[in-house]
Amino acid sequence: MATELTAGNVGQQDWSGGKSPFSVSYGKLMMWYFLVSDAFTFSALLITYGTIRFSSPTWADPNKVFNSFPLLEGYNIPLGFVSVMTFILILSSVFVVRAVQEGHMMNRKGVVKWMLLGILGGLAFLGCQAWEWSHLIHQGQTLSGNPFGPPAFGQLFFLITGFHGFHVFSGVVLNVIACSLAATGSLERRGHYELIEKVGLYWHFVDLVWVFVFLAFYLL
Amino acid sequence: MAHDFSVEQYNSQVSAVWRATIILSIVTIVEVAIALFYMQAYPNGDGPRMLLNVGFIMMSLLKAYFIVGEFMHLRYETRALIITILAPLFFLIWFIIAFLWEGAEWQNNRTFWGVEVEEHRTPMQGHGAEGHGQGDTHAKPAEEHKGH
Predict the structure, then answer these.
(1) What is the distance in angstroms between the Cα of B142 and the nearest Cα belonging to chain A?
(2) Structural domains of chain A in order of their starting residue, each with its CATH number
(3) ipTM
(4) DSSP-based three-state secondary structure for A125
(5) What average pLDDT does chain A have?
(6) Chain A CA closest to residue B44
(7) Which residue among A89, A116, B47, B62 has the highest number of C-beta atoms inside a 10 angstrom radius?
(8) Chain A contacts in chain B segment 8-47 (CB below 8 A)
(9) Residues of chain B under the 70 pLDDT cut
(10) What are B6-13's contacts with CB under 8 Å, separation 24+?
(11) pLDDT of res. A148
């Protein structure tokens, strides 16, 4: 089956019923469709950010807003902490890919090990975000006021990173469920580790969204 | 499905994923480095940004390609599935153009024509509108003044 996929030889007869023309299971296909719709939700949020930014005569300078690092108070480290967060999320994504690959080899121990590392990365990211939020709130960036620029900047920051953080949180919950099902041998009895692939798709999507949140808030 | 995987396939996929990881890391480092260099060159953030922003967007799309293609494995799916997932995203092109255009138009209204929108939302008690500029929104509060 895997060789069929890479060859991509889908012909007319594949649409005549009896098999999936996309060569994926129902669950994986629906996860993909959900992610497409979720991509539009995030696009709408980020385009809202762009629209309001374009409509404002002034805007906050990200290099001056995001220049703090935990335990290094008083130092000016622009974009330092958010780079660490980006790496944490990328690595966490890679760990889950490794879990999917071990799942293809029916290696239960490998799946559990890499999933645990992925969950750890997700929790670390959430911890970093909690620190960043509380730091910004202490500096006076709230939903109603913002010392760095127009209040809309802070409002959109909390809305969009909060929505993304909620996705990270639900992704961690899904990963924990999938990991525990793998650890108890429940997935091995099913004969495949497709559940890991499905939650993995969601987890990579969270990483994908972060690329664009990072672009919109920290780089542009 | 799972048992069809040969060791060679496994090995090649594992190395493909680590390669993608390295590329993602390098692109991220380059992005942050460019942002910091720009900050050094223009401490007040008032330099030309056009080329810089185009570069950031291209690098982000490159990262998205590796995440979706390698991590989410979309590169290796059937062509029909790839098209089904990616084709709707083309709607985003007009979504972005139309809304950013609209936002820029609002800024034009505010800065050039002096139309203020935010002030309308603040509760106006008594002569609260006195602090306004010379915008055309002044017409109504001025009439109220006469009545007092």
Answers:
(1) 26
(2) 63-219 (1.20.120.80)
(3) 0.86
(4) helix
(5) 89
(6) A61
(7) A89
(8) 9-10, 13-14, 17-18, 21, 24-25, 28-29, 31-32, 35-36, 39, 45
(9) 1-4, 116-148
(10) B9/A2, B10/A101, B10/A104, B10/A105, B13/A101
(11) 87
